[in-house]
Please model this.
Amino acid sequence: MTKEVSSPDGLLTIVDAVSFSVETAETLAITGPSGSGKSTLLALLAGLDVPTRGSVILGGLPFSSLDEDGRARLRAGRVGFVFQSFQLIPSMTAEENVRLPLELIGAEDAGVRAKQALADVGLAGRARYLARQLSGGEQQRVALARAFVVRPTLLFADEPTGNLDRANGIRIAELLFDLNASYGTTLILVTHEKALAARCGRIIDLIDGRIVDESIHE
Amino acid sequence: MSWSAIRIATVLRAFRRTELLVLVAAIAVAVSASSTVGLFTDRLQGAIRIESATALAADLRLESGRSAASLDLMEREAQRRDLQTGRTTTLTSVVHAGDIAQLTSIIASDGGYPLRGTLRISPTLYGPSQSTQDLPPVGQVFIDPRLASRLKVNIGEIVRVGVSQLQVAAILADRPDRGTGMAEVAPALLMRGVDLAASGLIGPASRATYALLVAGDPDAMDRFSGWVKLRKSAAEKLLTVAESSAQLGSASERAGRFLHLAAITTVLLAAIALAMASRRFARQRQDEVALLKCLGATRQTIIRRFAVELMAAAIAGALLGVCLGYAAQSGLAELAKTFTAVAVLPPASVTPAILGVITAIVMMAGFAAPPIMELARIPPARVLREDLSGRKIPLFFPALGAVVSLLAILYLYVNDLALVLGAGCSLALVTIIYALIGNGLVLIAKKIRPDSGVAWRYGMSALARRPRETTAQILAFGLGMTILLLLGVVRVGLLDAWRGALPATAPNYFLINIAPTERSSIEQFFSEKRVPIDFAPWVRGRLLSVNGTLIANRMPKSDRGRAFAEREQNLSFSADLPPDNELVEGQWWSRSSGLQPAVSVATEFRDELNLHLGDRLVFDVGGDMTEAKIQSFRKVRWDGFRPNFFLLFSPGVLDASVGSFLAATHLDEEGRKALLEFDQKFPTVTVLDIDGVLNSVRTLIDRAAAAITYVFAFTLLAGLVVLLAAVRATADERRYEIAVLRAFGASRLQIVSGGMAEFAILGALSGGVAAIASSAIGFFIASHWLGVPWRPTWSIWLWGVSAGTFGVTLFGTASTWRMSATRPARVLRGQNS
Model:
């Protein structure tokens, strides 16, 4: 697939004829320097944006040909996200942030599941804290709890340790892979950290929107 | 997301956000102002109605010249409807005391008189009086002071009425239905009905008027009045409160319009605050929407979620507003009690409260919905790229729809289309002017970079960097300042002018039935007492035809129109347009164009009879046919208390027909003592004391001025909410800019100085334009509503520019100062929420 955007200098190709497939429970890292198109590719794969040409097929469904609401419905309860900037709602408590995806799918036991998810990331005692009252590491743990609380089949993580110090980064990475292993989730991870990428089963290296290298780790 | 997924806690949590609180405040201010005015005018109208009813001594009065029995059916029906009833018999007859005889207006009743208002009696002539609900005992009478003076009788002495000898029990100082009309020419005597029956005055040939008095609650009275209208005979005359006390009604109508203007302005201002606050509300929620979409929320889910939040805010604002409105109107009701003699005001109805809630929902749906619709278009990819925003939707039609809906609701409040459209159009005009000025300022700011320091340079460049926000701020500050100037400066001048229109020396006594031969003696009598007096010729005449069509063949449908057509009218003539008269159509006659018989007609008469310029009217004046062409229409200010006429002829038409003169004068305490002497010197002249009505109107104006100030406090609040919303409109960009500048080493002082410069430019410009706008609006109110002369003063410029500069700078700087205290790193990391 290809993604082009218009700019004052003309049409820019951000993702250029990229094609690959990901198996269930596989872990895939997309790496590359800044401006290589990693985040745009992630947005296309997650259905947050649509390609100019080509398509994304999710579980046999033509994901990218659906309209925005159709893609949102498909994501609900199946897709989880972890972002570099955490993307918690600051005026909500930790527990309320974790409940959010459950509420969207109308889960009746949202409260219990949210509490359990927070306990899984070691934040049971912070459930009633507002997101903005938590440290960066704690906020990303809440984001992990929110991502896994719906037991997603597919998880997208965009530079999950990018905003954290080294110790917190390691802790988050551990949690991410542990939870992924526990739930058998397919993981697509965007990162420029080689060590983090190396923990994935496969690595795709992107430069100027093109796949320049692909390696498989045992 | 299902409806059930929108949890109460989530909605309550939204109230932690300042922007939602600004929305609630805007709604609360709008609803409280409109419901206060609605509730208050509702009750005031009820009080005026009761006050007016005292002029009839009842809510409804049905008079018959035939027999008392003809009113029996109506009385039984009134009693069946649980209404209070009473009966009076009135006739004019000669009353004797010794050798002296005096033509007297005799009023007899056996109960139920008066049903509204009270009698005031005094033990001495022109002495202090006290109110009483009791009629004189059988065998006794209350007599008018003029009658006592002319008959030379005191309390306890005997007067002869017909064949009966009756004792004077008290001086009748006042009675509610004494009236300000011109029909009653003889002094009054009040006696019992049984005594009248025994007097031998009532017989088949006696010209008595029998009246049925009815009183009850307004709705029941309206229904009964309708029932009576269908069944009464042509010989029976129906008088209701709507037709009485024209002067009081006129003043209260002016007060009501002023109050309604305050409410409309408040609601429209609050709508502006709401629109600004909702834009920021939507902007602050963009990241949240993108996240929700990532997690699987559809557009419908997003709209539902925010619609619930906004409706919760609308309901919270409406409830708060209605509570404030009820509390505020009870304060106003205390004032209203002093407007009238009514001790207990009618209860407030729930309609204004219901309208208040509807206003809140329409305001929220109309002004907050468009930003929410835009919010639903935010792309989910914004979670990865913050610069992404949704496609803009055209805002013109939703905003137009909202404004039209709001104006429709305001029309329900005030029931005055011209007022609502006038306010709406004025606001639109002022908005366009401010928008143009805002755009102009942005253009200037882009081109000019002053050399007078970094603060001014930063201030000017800030204005140019945010063109939309600059325009919106100019608009909001300007409208806020316009209202504040109207409130603080123009209102004071206008109310003074209104009070001045009814000076302390306004006529409080009318002299009627002055024979042409008496005029010079009366003029001399008052001249000796150094009391000025104005005379007007007074001719009685009946309209016969319009353009050759008999009036009977073009009879109006309304009661008032029929009265104009059927009854004898008071006619007069004048070479000059009298004071309190404004020519609205046609031309006044000049002294050289007096050959053509012409008439000038009051607008009320014109509207009821559907008359046009050039129509030929024929009158029967004392048996002679008098024809005149309509040359002009006049708007008469009836609450000026000068003698005024619906029909005023050009000089020369009626001169030969003048039967009598009417005079008006102002008598102070000292002057009143001369009345006794006047009565004895000019016994055929009737003196009407209108001091009571004059005082009622004067009190009404004073209290209405206080009420208007009270209601304008809500407008002031709305203005402040607009200012708050306007300052906050750029808060996010400002916070980020400040953080960047701080990161590059700008001191807090430099940043605050730059903000001050920016707000000072905005404030000075808004204040200057607000001075023009408020002067124009003030001039319109003075000339079109209050009918008083008023010119804006230079002080309004001084106030406008200085208050604008200092007020906006202070408001804006306070906000910039707080922002500059935030650590730059926090803001730049996106932790500024």
Q: What stands out?
A: The two ends of chain A are 28 Å apart (CA to CA).
